[in-house]
Design a protein that fits this description.
By secondary structure, this protein is α+β, with helices and mostly antiparallel strands. It has 2 domains: 37 residues, no CATH class; 94 residues, GMP Synthetase, Chain A, domain 3 (2-Layer Sandwich), CATH 3.30.300.20. The chain is 30% helix and 34% strand. It has 3 helices and 6 strands. The strands form 2 sheets. It has a 3-stranded antiparallel β-sheet, with no helix packed on it.
């Protein structure tokens, strides 16, 4: 399996990612630093998307239902050399299903996630999964 994206930027302006039918603007200038995602935030978004995709995948394989999943991801950036050193996540699964086994889901999400496994080779990752029965 192979993946492909394209991106473009114009001098002194921001940039765009083109992925399938989606266009995602991202910041490359100071003027939009507080408005558009930067490359590090896009990187963490990919990590979060990987986990959420695997929640959906494993809901079928592990035979549980859920209403919603939310993830918060934080990272620590080192200066020299500039790199992400530590990633922490908290995944919340909103489900009333008693068949949802949190530890088994966590094990599978962390073992079979393409982005998760790639990132884990470069930095430390720690996380937790919390089950809540109701969401607003």
């Amino acid at each position: 399996m192979e993946y492909s994206v394209s991106a473009n930027s114009v001098s002194k302006n921001d940039a765009n990612l083109n992925i399938k039918q989606s266009n995602i603007a991202f910041g490359t200038t100071e003027k939009t630093a507080n408005e558009l995602p930067n490359p590090a935030e896009l990187f963490l978004s990919s990590f979060a998307a990987c986990i959420l995709k695997n929640v959906e995948r494993f809901s079928s394989l592990l035979h549980f239902d859920y209403d919603k999943a939310e993830i918060k991801v934080r990272a620590t950036r080192l200066e020299k050399p500039p790199r992400i050193d530590d990633i922490r996540y908290e995944l919340t699964i909103f489900s009333k299903d008693e068949k949802l086994r949190i530890e088994l889901l966590k094990k599978n999400v962390e073992k079979f996630g393409t982005i998760f496994n790639t990132v884990q080779k470069a930095c430390s990752i720690s996380g937790s999964i919390v089950k809540k029965e109701d969401y607003v």
